[in-house]
Amino acid sequence: MNQSIINTEIKPFSATAFHKGEFVPVSEQDLLGKWSVVFFYPADFTFVCPTELGDMADHYEKLQGMGVEVFSVSTDTHFTHKAWHDASDTINKIQYPMIGDPTGAITRNFGVMIEEDGLALRGTFVINPEGQIKVSEVHDLGIGRSAAELVRKIQAAQYVATHDGEVCPAAWQPGAETLAPSLDLVGKI
């Protein structure tokens, strides 16, 4: 049984990302001071991965408006990310940093490395401005993720972070009622 990484701090890392036509250095320091999403996927030039990264690109403006930066990560190099960006219309619309992790160090830090294949599971992690992991979602390789659902989860995480004593029930949407856990609610929901 693996220990949960929820509420743990992100581990230090150093990598190179392909971002807006440039190769740029990225470290855990780039995730601090704002909400961040670290979005792992198995490999460039594959099948489900471009659908997920394209879906994330379609929601990127909304996430930016929420004060969230997105970092995609695979065990490919930043050079491969550039080649994929240049070759695919879907990947070409990506505006967020695409981190190369050819050594697998970042992928292992988040516990999503498939050691025998040298690839990442489909892992999504939401990190608060203090560097603590607040959401962890890991999928098998054949199961694609939804950026719209990720947006909702981040909205809930941001709400809870700024409203002490309140929690968001299932399928909560901004503007909907929240709960204030108390003895009076036990057995009433």
UniProtKB/TrEMBL annotation:
Active site: C49
CDD domains: PRX_Typ2cys
Phylogenetic lineage: Bacteria, Pseudomonadati, Pseudomonadota, Gammaproteobacteria, Alteromonadales
Cellular compartments annotated: Cytoplasm
Primary location class: cytoplasm
Organism: Shewanella hanedai
Keywords: Antioxidant, Cytoplasm, Disulfide bond, Oxidoreductase, Peroxidase, Redox-active center
GO terms under cellular component: cytosol
PROSITE patterns: THIOREDOXIN_2
Domain Thioredoxin stretches: 4-159
InterPro entries attached to this UniProt entry: AhpC, AhpC/TSA, Peroxiredoxin, Peroxiredoxin_AhpC-typ, Peroxiredoxin_C, Thioredoxin-like_sf, Thioredoxin_domain
Family matches, as NCBIfam families: AhpC
Enzyme's top EC category: oxidoreductase
Family membership noted in the UniProt record: Belongs to the peroxiredoxin family. AhpC/Prx1 subfamily.
Subunit structure: Homodimer; disulfide-linked, upon oxidation. 5 homodimers assemble to form a ring-like decamer.
EC number: 1.11.1.26
Signal peptide per UniProt: none
Catalytic activity from the UniProt record: a hydroperoxide + NADH + H(+) = an alcohol + NAD(+) + H2O
Annotated function: Thiol-specific peroxidase that catalyzes the reduction of hydrogen peroxide and organic hydroperoxides to water and alcohols, respectively. Plays a role in cell protection against oxidative stress by detoxifying peroxides.
Biological process, per Gene Ontology: cell redox homeostasis; cellular response to stress; hydrogen peroxide catabolic process; response to oxidative stress
MF GO annotations: NADH-dependent peroxiredoxin activity; thioredoxin peroxidase activity
Protein name stated in the entry: Alkyl hydroperoxide reductase C
